[in-house]
Specification:
- A hairpin with a 6-residue loop joins strand 5 and strand 6 (234-238).
- This protein has helices spanning 2-12, 16-36, 41-60, 64-75, 77-84, 86-96, 101-131, 147-150, 162-168, 208-218, 248-261; strands at 136-140, 154-159, 179-183, 186-192, 223-227, 234-238, 241-243.
- Helix content is 54%, strand content 13%.
- It has 2 domains: 2-95, no CATH class; 99-276, YojJ-like (1 (3-Layer(aba) Sandwich), CATH 3.40.1700.10.
- Helix 7 packs across helix 9 and helix 7 packs antiparallel against helix 11.
- The protein has 11 helices and 7 strands.
- It has a 7-stranded mixed sheet, with helices on both faces.
- By secondary structure, it is of the alpha+beta class.
């Protein structure tokens, strides 16, 4: 009865600001969960949770030596978490500091027609490369600027052209080895070096281009398109995931969603299949 009275007492002092506080906390927790569930950080978060449960068990069983180890471990917990989750924290902060929703909408309205025409020509060029199994890696810069990546390559700063894109990735061309960065609907730079996906589980299944596409999509909100040199399969990497086996139509629709509509919905796309990789 005392316990029930205590709960009822809490409801009597519960006001609008308490509800707002709980709602904000719920949104934060849900956002964190959404952010880490499809990333390697999800496994790390599970590991941290298991350590915390282990600490509770050790305290309940009076295991003094283990308590001492866990207590000292958790005292430095914030620093350890910052180090372990550094790539994910960087990606999250870059997205938080990105263009506002209103700014994104304005950009889409201003550049929608031009981007739509670019997507048509870009898709034709990519599938021409796929027919000849010419390897290619193209990155569409969005809100997160890729200035540090651009510095690793050669600035072209040319109006987009499908023929120019195919010329860059011609296997005898001096700039074919690396990534092309497209900024503001222009071919901004070529032969850029991208960070590789470090997950060792994927080493046997992914070529360097695919790992680079995943790596750059993990640290920014860019969209990376890959043409496999071995199979000619066209793939798209976004938010640390890679989707494969695109047709011209599905690729146009996907790029339209990402680059014009600003959508991140990837539920309808085909996820990476190791059997079809190079």
């Amino acid at each position: 009865m005392e316990w029930l009275k205590h709960i009822l007492r809490l409801f009597t002092v519960f006001d609008f600001f308490d509800f707002l506080d709980i709602a904000c906390l719920t949104i934060v927790i849900f956002s964190v969960y959404q952010f880490i569930k499809e990333r390697r950080a999800g496994k790390l978060a599970l590991g941290v949770g298991l350590l915390f449960v282990s600490l509770i068990i050790c305290e309940a069983l009076n295991l003094h030596a283990m308590q001492f180890i866990f207590n000292n471990l958790f005292r430095s917990g914030i620093l350890i978490i910052a180090i372990i989750f550094q790539p994910e924290l960087r990606s999250a902060l870059e997205k938080v500091g990105g263009t506002s929703i209103k700014g994104i909408k304005n950009i889409s309205e201003r550049n929608g027609t031009l981007t739509g025409a670019l997507i048509e020509e870009f898709t034709e060029a990519v599938f021409d490369l796929a027919k000849t199994k010419t390897g290619a890696l193209i990155v569409f810069e969005r809100n997160t600027k890729l200035g540090d990546i651009i510095l690793t390559g050669t600035v072209v700063n040319a109006q987009f052209s499908g023929n120019l894109l195919k010329s860059i990735f011609f296997n005898k061309a001096p700039l074919h080895d690396g990534a092309v960065i497209i900024r503001n609907n222009r071919i901004h730079s070529a032969a850029c070096i991208l960070p590789l996906e470090p997950d060792r589980d994927l080493f046997r299944d992914l070529g360097t281009r695919h790992r680079a596409a995943i790596g750059i999509s993990e640290i920014s909100d860019c969209v990376a398109v890959v043409v496999s040199e071995e199979t000619g399969i066209v793939s798209i990497a976004h938010e640390g995931n890679i989707y494969r086996n695109f047709t011209k139509t599905s690729m146009k629709n996907t790029l339209q969603e990402y680059l014009i509509n600003g959508s991140s919905d990837s539920k309808k796309k085909v996820k990476f299949n190791s059997k079809n990789s190079d």
